[in-house]
From TrEMBL:
This is SUF system NifU family Fe-S cluster assembly protein. Residues 10-131 form the NIF system FeS cluster assembly NifU N-terminal domain. InterPro entries: NIF_FeS_clus_asmbl_NifU_N. Gene3D superfamilies: 3.90.1010.10. PANTHER family: IRON-SULFUR CLUSTER ASSEMBLY ENZYME NIFU HOMOLOG.
Length: 148
């Protein structure tokens, strides 16, 4: 598979997630939530984290509006982390942040980030990194609120 074929697959994955997002729709009962805004472009998200009785992340739910990257990133995050221990979710957020800040020098690890690795190309475009990070920052903030 050529790199242009791979880019096409990644672009299609991002578009699919922005059109049919995973975890979209807030719940009435809220364990913890965070509202984040990207002032650069106006993207917004409200993200909730719901912990299961066993301490894992039962679900991530969210609503927001913005570009395909921010919406797909929220969907990919929700899909990736459901069922994970909270410490592992925090680790994945750190790995994603490192890749996004690398300006294309670090390829996201699909073993750790699953389909969210498709967002790796965004790191080359500084103006778009905040779009990709919006849901992940909201999740990090919401996770901190779980135990507050």
């Amino acid at each position: 598979m050529t790199s242009s074929d791979l880019q096409g697959l990644y672009q299609e994955l991002i578009l699919d997630h922005s059109r049919s997002p995973h975890g979209y729709g807030l719940r009435g009962e809220v364990a913890a939530q965070s509202h984040q805004v990207n002032p650069t472009c106006g993207d917004e998200i409200t993200l909730q984290v719901h912990r299961a009785a066993d301490g894992t992340l039962e679900a991530v739910t969210w609503e927001g509006h913005g570009c395909a990257i921010s919406q797909a990133s929220a969907s990919l995050f929700a899909e990736l982390v459901e069922g994970m221990p909270l410490s592992e979710v925090e680790r994945r957020i750190a790995v994603f942040r490192e890749a996004m800040r690398s300006r294309g020098k670090i390829e996201p690890d699909p073993e750790l980030l699953g389909d969210a690795a498709a967002l790796g190309g965004v790191s080359k475009y500084v103006a778009r990194v905040k779009c990709a990070m919006l849901a992940w920052v909201a999740a990090e903030d919401a996770l901190r609120k779980l135990d507050s």
